[in-house]
Each structure stands twice: as C-alpha cells, then as structure tokens.
Design a protein that fits this description.
Alpha-Beta Plaits, 9-stranded mixed beta sheet, globular, ubiquitin protein ligase activity, BRAP2/ETP1_RRM, Znf_RING/FYVE/PHD, zinc-finger
Length: 353
C-alpha cells in the first residue's frame, strides 16, 4: 500500500471551468452531469506542493488484494504539455465517477504535475485504474500514465515531517522514469516499455529538466563525484533526492546517506542498476521480475515506437542501447551464477570439515 505526504504551505484553489480552459465538449458533459445530480458533480482544484511517496515494506506493492486498494488514486506524473482539460478528456467516461480531482504542481518540476483522484466507490476506482493505468497519454509520445492506490494523503507545512517515512515504510521516487527502473513489487508498476538503463532516448522526453538522477544517467561523459569526499570512482546516486555518494568499498558515504535519511534506493551509476539497502539486493527491473521470479530477457522492451519501428524511436543497434542492455543482462546472469557457485563451494567445504 502507498502513502502520500505533501509538503505545502498552500491550500486547494478551486478551479472553475473557465479557469481550467475546458473545451465545449468537456464543459457540456460536466454541466449535464451537474444538472442531473448536483451532489455528485466532480470538484476540481489546484495546489502547490512537493509530494513524497511512501510504500509499506515487506510485501508486494501491486494491487493484487482488496486490502491494497482504495477509492483514492494517485496519478504519479502528467506531462506538462497536457492542460487540465486535456487530462480530463484523457480520463474519458471515467470522469463521470470522480468525486474530486486535485492537481498538484511542484514549482521545481517544470515538465510534469501529479493528480489526486477520489472515486465514488471501490468498483469505480478499480475501473478507473484498469482503464487508464499503463495507457499512453499520447500515441506518438513516450509518456505513460502510472496510477497507484493510496491509503492516505497528508498535507503538512513541515518539510521534515513530509520527508519522514511512516513506520514500516520507505520512500519512493516520484520521477516516473526512476519509478519505472524499479521492479514491479517495489514500484507497484506492473510493466513498462523500457527499463531506462544507459542512455535511452525516452529519459530526456520525460524528466531531463527536473530529475537530477536522469540527468546523471544522460551525461555519462562527466562522472559526478561524491558530495562529501570528492571521490569519483564508482559513484552512487540516491534516486529520492539525487545525493551522490561513494561506494561502501571506498569511504561509504552513499551508505551513510541511507542511514541518515532512510532513502534506501541508490543507483550504481556505472552499471545503472538500483540497490535496495534495506533488502540488501538489486531491485532494478533489468535484474529481476519478482512477479515470476525470472530474469527479464525481452530485449525488445526498450523500443518506444507504437509500430515497433526502432528506426523511428532511436532504439536501433546503431544507438548502442541494445548492446548495452544485452551486456548488462549477461553480466547480471554471470553475477548470479558466481554467487550460486560460491555458496555451493562453501557448503561443500563445511561438509568436508
């Protein structure tokens, strides 16, 4: 289950149809619903704030049980080229079952905004989720709508309170690209078109302006150095706040950052795979899929074209992405084999002794 805390000194500002620049079709549709039943007309509002997303530790984040679902949904990111009216039209007929939409804007995120959606009941919430989750906002673009069920939403004017995980929870990134890097059980995102490893072109389409982690991944020619000691060998980047630290085999500042902040997900920049300090394992989608327990081997997953025409989406072999992905997957398999072999040898040694 997911929890949301919003650091905000703002309040909800109601949006009238004129303020949101709704189209005639949308306006007439909502007006008709309001006239037929004034008590169920959806409310629209906007609020400024910084969203902190948390998940409970110890079980899958996928909505596979009634206990993990609710009538409150969180649309993680909507590209900024979509107006509020565009998003409502994107919702289609599902807007008829909405009680309230709250558009959350972060002044530091120029490329996207988030949306809180409250539905009338669990059935309509499930319908909203299954209809729109995983759907592209625009057929020709890379951005996909990712929706999570929320247990609660809290607003606070304290940055410290907003960034402190509830008991038994850990914080997740709100950057959609960074979330898609994580495996399904961790992120609650069942499937993606791309694992965003190496210099994939869709990173720049989503969050190149606002996400420091994505900028580091794109700018491979300039390796960042540890924010504390300045060491540039094997840097690790916190996917929550973008802190750069050195590995545990140098000065260990990345590990110390986790202990100080409880930000447990860190990107090993050289291999571009995410490590979970709490689970003490990689949780990058490239490494494993906990849904079926098997390594992901679909080398076509990075293609962004609707027609699967890699020449159009710059994912062809000439870009070097396919080769990099293949090499990384082979390296992951070799690592798993070496660990298994070492474990077996240790077991045999103990038997002999």
């Amino acid at each position: 289950m997911f929890f949301l805390r919003v650091h905000s000194v703002d309040t909800n500002h109601p949006l009238s149809l004129e303020d949101a620049e709704f189209t005639t079709i949308t306006t007439s549709k909502i007006t008709s619903a309001t006239e037929s039943n004034p008590n169920t007309s959806p409310k629209f509002s906007e609020r400024r704030g910084i969203a902190h997303l948390f998940r409970s530790i110890g079980h899958s984040s996928l909505p596979n049980s009634p206990a993990s679902r609710s009538t409150l949904l969180f649309v993680i990111a909507v590209p900024n080229y979509l107006s509020f009216d565009d998003f409502i039209r994107f919702c289609g007929s599902r807007i008829d079952h909405v009680l309230e939409l709250v558009f959350i804007r972060n002044d530091g995120m120029e490329d996207r905004y988030s949306v809180l959606v409250e539905l009338k009941n669990q059935m309509t919430a499930d319908g909203f989720y299954h209809t729109l989750n995983g759907k592209k906002y625009s057929p020709g673009e890379a951005e996909v709508c990712h929706i999570l069920f929320l247990l609660s939403v809290d607003y606070t004017d304290s940055d410290e309170i907003a960034g402190t995980p509830p008991q038994g929870c850990t914080e997740l990134p709100t950057c959609p690209v960074c979330l898609e890097r994580l495996d399904a059980d961790t992120s609650g995102i069942a499937s993606t078109l791309c694992d965003h490893s190496f210099q994939c072109p869709c990173i720049s389409k989503w969050t190149y302006l606002s996400c420091q982690v994505c900028r580091f991944c794109q700018q491979q020619d300039e390796k960042p150095a540890c924010s504390v000691c300045g060491i540039s060998v094997n840097p690790w980047v916190c996917v929550i706040c973008g802190f750069v630290g050195c590995g545990r085999y140098t000065e260990g500042h990345a590990v110390r950052h986790w202990k100080d902040t409880q930000h447990c997900y860190s990107l090993e920049l050289n291999r571009q795979q995410i490590w979970d300090y709490v689970g003490d394992a990689y949780v990058h989608r490239l490494n494993q899929s906990k849904i079926d327990g098997k390594l992901i081997t679909d080398t076509d997953s990075q293609c962004l074209s609707v027609e699967r025409d890699c020449d159009r989406c710059e994912c062809s072999d000439d870009s070097g992405i396919s080769g990099a992905l293949y090499s990384s997957k082979v390296e992951t398999i070799v690592d798993e084999y070496n660990r298994l072999l070492a474990s077996q040898l240790e077991t045999q040694r103990q038997v002999v002794l």
